[in-house]
Amino acid sequence: MLTDRQKKILNLIVREYSKKGEPVGSKEFSQKFFSDLSPATIRREFFDLTKAGYLLQSHPSAGRVPTDKAYKLFVDEVLENEKKLTGESEHWQKKMEMTRGGAKDLFSQSAKIIADFCGGLGVSYSFTGGFVYKFGLKNLFGQLMNDVSSPEMKQIFTDIELMDERFEELFNILVDDERSVFIGKDNPLIKSDSLSIISRHIPDGDSGVLLLIGPKNMHYDKNLAILEAVANLFDG
Fold first, then answer.
1. 68/59 Cα distance (integer angstroms)
2. How far apart are CA 210 and CA 112, in angstroms?
């Protein structure tokens, strides 16, 4: 069982790694966020969280990076705070309504909105029409270029090309919940441990699903709010 302090530490590490993309060192982290505690106390917390499978350290002198287990905890906390998520989605929805113009076909437009506001690859799938729209492939590969090997990049590209054929097969998995987040190897569409998918089901009227495909260290709280905002446009 994690303590409240350990949960706070993990939350801050996920945010720092999402922001900088670099392993988080205990000394700098302690000075920035826990100046009231000794560096030794934070080092011990880092050690315990690594032992518990929430953090990864490539070698003894390196900083830590979040594991899938840490990301899942972070996402669960974001989704549990419904009030904050709703407030942030309303903020993003206002921005979208000012920029999107009067296009009527939201499914074709929503993939571009997701890519523009989140970065990464935006995807929208209309179950009733059977149409798949993708936008932002350049965003995605730009984000992955320095961190993903060439063979893995080729596999990602192949899986994206095959995505259209797999949507009907995987639709029930993607819409099992109104909102879903698939982290690393849990990703049902792309065989890469380096990616995550945020899925938002559009249940009524034009039934379908909205997706953001991005690096595993994406800004989950911001991106969940953005997909929620795009989904709310369908109610307008």
1. 19
2. 11
Nearest Cα to Cα of residue 107 among 88, 91, 130 = 130
**192 Cβ neighbours under 8 A, 6+ residues apart:** 148, 152, 155, 156, 159
Q: In the numeric block, which tokens belong to residue 31?
A: 């000075």
Q: Which amino acid is at 119?
A: G
Q: Decide if 152 contacts 140 (C-beta within 8 A).
A: no
Residue type, 150: S
Task: State residue 91 phi and psi, 5-degree precision.
Answer: -60, -45
- Domain of 16, in residue numbers: 4-66
Same domain, 140 and 31: no
The domain that holds 58 is classified in CATH as 1.10.10.10
Render 85-143 in DSSP notation, one character per residue.
HHHHHHHHHHHHHHHSTT-S-HHHHHHHHHHHHH-SEEEEEETTTTEEEEE-HHHHHHH
**Most confidently predicted of 91-105, 110-124, 203-217:** 110-124
- CATH code for the domain in which residue 150 is found: 3.30.450.40
| pLDDT single digits (tens) 122-139 | 999 988 778 899 999 999
Find tokens 């549990």 and name the residue.
Answer: 80
77 found inside a domain? no
Amino acid at 107: F
Query: Using CA atoms, how far apart are residues 79 and 180, in angstroms rounded to an integer?
Result: 10
